[in-house]
Amino acid sequence: MLPLSFGGKLGGKYIILPKFEQKNCMRNSNKLTELKIKQSKPDYKQYKLTDGEGMYMRVYPNGSKYWQLKYRYDGKQKTLSFGVWPEVGLSEAREKRAEARKKIKQGIDPIGEKKILQQEAEKESKFRKESLKITFKKVFQEWINTKSSEWTGKYTKNVSGYMNMHVFPDLGDKPILEIRRDDAKGIHETCYRIRQKLEAIFVYAEIKGYFEGVNPARYLEKIISKPKQKSHNSIPIEELPEFILKVEASKGAPPSTVLAMKFIILTFVRTVELRFADWKEFDLNCKEPIWVIPAERMKMGRTHHVPLVKQTVSILKEIRKYSGPKGYVFPQLRNQQKAMSENTLLYFSNRLGYAGRHTIHGFRTIASTVLNESRKWHPDVIELQLSHQESNKVRKAYNRAEHLDERRKMMEWWADHIDSLMIQAYDKKGIA
Fold first, then answer.
1. Active-site pick, 96, 364, 403, 407
2. 188 assigned to active site
3. Active-site residue, 204 included
């Protein structure tokens, strides 16, 4: 006869509890309570206190009490540990059991998942430990070494100098993993010009595994004030004929300096590009004469093509009488093995009375203004001939050496336009 709690004689009658009530009564009688756990004492050997559904507490002789869950997965008996009591209480252990059993039903092995999570945590810990040794300065040095094939030595030196002056004092020795947007915001706002460089450095760091998270430099342009663009003083186009007249009439100026000034007006290249021009870069004998400036001499690190027209070819043939057929086109007067000095043309301009009013770079400004205002040439073609940084607005069709026909026509128009201005100037001065 069953005990009364599950069925038996009551009031002269036998009763049988419904099956589910029997099951629930047995389950409830076996379940643990916090009191049972507290009252459990260690024995000379370990033993279990079951809580049902595969979970039990293992009590060790030293008094330690651990939660464990037995289950089958993929045909194998396995044991999952939940932690030690009382750090993990009864209610938390039951939550862990429910979560584990849910995963088992979904076909997930809790132990396998736990190992994966542990491995990921260990990997993260190792990554962080190693990354804390990697400073922003170290990543910058790695990154800039990858740019050696793209940039000129001078440009690389300029970028390094800018970093040393404006970025390294704040971020140089800081682990790159710990740099956040607020740190980047603290950099002097003159850093605006190298915001893209900063962003590229963090992209490189992410690729190399040195950094994770949001790129701190990505949106700096929205929160750092853009410095005012330093303008290069230039005279208006209306004053250019008078300037050229003064150049031609100057006394004491070497012929090579006079010719160099005329040449830079017609080609509107940068001063440094003209100073170091070498005869091997020129082809004057082909049907369409060309000057090809190699990438390593260009500010943007790209080969630049300058179509030569009859006026510029004439100047080059004249200058050859002074410089010879090899080496620098515009060498120093006293040492033809050296290029023209950096400020030769600027000092010449200053002596003509244009100090503070006009720079040699100003010829590029004049050319850009006149060519754009003429509306005869596509703005992208003008930008390419100026060798400016290509932007998203510049269509891919207009790249570097292509569309030389249009650029040649533009250079011919520019030279002819200056000639027409000079004819008017000569007439006014009564110069035959």
1. 364
2. no
3. no
Q: Three-state SS across 271-314?
A: HHHHHCCEHHHEECCCCCCEEEECHHHCCCCCCEEEECCHHHHH
Choose, from 65, 361, 400, 409, the residue flagged as catalytic: 361
Cβ proximity of 331 and 338 under 8 Å: yes
Question: Tell me, what's the pLDDT at 59?
Answer: 93
Residue 328 among the catalytic residues: no
Q: Show the tokens assigned to 49.
A: 């206190």
Q: Is 361 designated active site?
A: yes
CA 423 to centroid of chain Cα atoms:
51
Q: Which residues contact 395 (CB under 8 A, 6 or more apart)?
A: 380
Q: Is the peptide bond before 86 cis (omega within 30 degrees of 0)?
A: yes
How far is 384 from 18, CA to CA, in rounded Å?
A: 92
Q: What is residue 350's predicted lDDT score, i.e. its pLDDT?
A: 94
Q: Does domain 237-429 sit in CATH 2.40.30.10?
A: no
Exactly one of 94, 97, 166, 270 is catalytic; which is it? 270
* Domain edges within the chain: 1-30, 32-125, 136-223, 237-429
Q: Is 224 helix (H, G, I), strand (E, B) or coil?
A: coil
Q: Can you give the pTM of this predicted structure? A: 0.51
Q: Report d(CA 98, CA 71) in Å as an integer.
A: 12
- Which residue of the set 388, 400, 409, 417 is catalytic? 388
CA distance 241 to 237: 8
Q: Which of 172, 171, 165, 168 is nearest to 190 (CA)?
A: 165
What pLDDT, on a 0 to 100 scale, did the predictor assign at position 345?
95
Q: Which fold has domain 136-223?
A: DNA polymerase; domain 1 (1.10.150)
The answer to whether residue 270 is catalytic is yes
* Nearest alpha-carbon partner for 195 in 241, 240, 163, 169: 163
Place of tokens 């720079």: 359
Neighbours of 227 (CB within 10 A): 12
Provide CATH code, domain 32-125.
3.30.160.390
Known catalytic membership, residue 226: no
Q: What Rg, from alpha-carbon coordinates, does the chain have? A: 41
Low-confidence ranges of the chain (pLDDT < 50): 1-29, 189, 391-401
Indicate which residue of 66, 162, 398, 417 is catalytic. 398
Q: How far apart are CA 91 and CA 205, in angstroms?
A: 45
d(CA 232, CA 361): 6
> Are 201 and 215 within 8 A, CB to CB?
no
